[in-house]
Amino acid sequence: MLGRLARKLRMLGYDVFYRAGIEDNDLKRIALRERRVLLTRDREIVETSLPIDVRLIESDDVGEQLVQVVRDLGLSAGPCSFTRCTECNEPLVRMDKEEVRDLVAPYVYRTQDAFAHCPSCGRIYWEATHVEQARQWLRDVLDGSFSEEDEPGVTNILVTGRPGVGKTTLIRRVLASLPAEAGGFYTSEIRENGRRVGFSIESTGGARGTLAHVDYRGPYRVASYGVNRDDLERVGVAALDKAVEGSELILMDEIGRMELCSEAFQAAVMRALDAATPVFGTIQAASNPFLDAVRARSDVEIIEVTTQNRDAMVAVVGRRIAGLMERE
Ligand SMILES: [Zn+2]
Fold first, then answer.
1. How many angstroms separate the CA atoms of 65 and 20, rounded?
2. CA of 68 to the centre of ligand 1 (A)
3. Cβ atoms of residues 214 and 224 within 8 Å
4. Are the CB atoms for 199 and 185 separated by under 8 Å?
5. Does the global pTM surpass 0.85?
6. By the 8 A CB rule, do 9 and 16 touch?
7. Which residues place a Cβ less than 5 A from the ion ligand 1?
């Protein structure tokens, strides 16, 4: 029940064993064998007499949980973040910048210097802004000035799901239900004689371009399409930058494999996600360094749309977006 707390503690560099759904007896055995402090929300475990240090975590709130653990166990600011995989608890292994050149997005490669990977799951970590924020957060907990509001929260919502499941329809229905004007771009299919032959890109301001087409010849290809990097940048980058400047909500529909060909576009996406203005968009389910970097951000929430939930999600997502816009 304490998965979020476990990840936070690992992010700060602490050695934390956690397994969802583990039996109480296995948990006790591991705590005993590995001489761990057992953290639990379960009063029954605390009340069993055990030759291990068991602490009852009082709060449901992950911020309060962390404050309690840091205070109760007298944790110091000693261990630094960026030393442990937040998913596996495995110590990270440092990598030279040169080694990650082809493994991370060009934007990340260009703006980051310290990299490490998890030898267990292979995830690559870099000292991005959120790691700095985690360190500040721990300092605040330790000197008592921590409050829940300081936790870097979600400011961006991206919808994902299988192709054709209705991501763009969901976006349009949610936008129609909101009083705000969104700025950004849409992509849509270009069809000829019932066959998909490409994708167009269109800004909310009315600029149009061809994102990709089967007949387009160029150095950038995704599946059978040639990607038109000039139009992607002329329409997409300009639309995002304009939205960051003056919109209440930034729209990006969608980000996926085609966008990998443009570093300028990737940088514009990151600028939009960094901005205080909320982003609402869609992201392909595919894995590649750029999309993985977007999904890994602590300020991005990914919402999966399926044929079962897509109608119900209009109201749910609408409320989330409205909430983000109020907060900003
Ligand atoms: Zn890992």
1. 18
2. 26
3. yes
4. no
5. no
6. yes
7. 85, 87-88, 118, 120-121
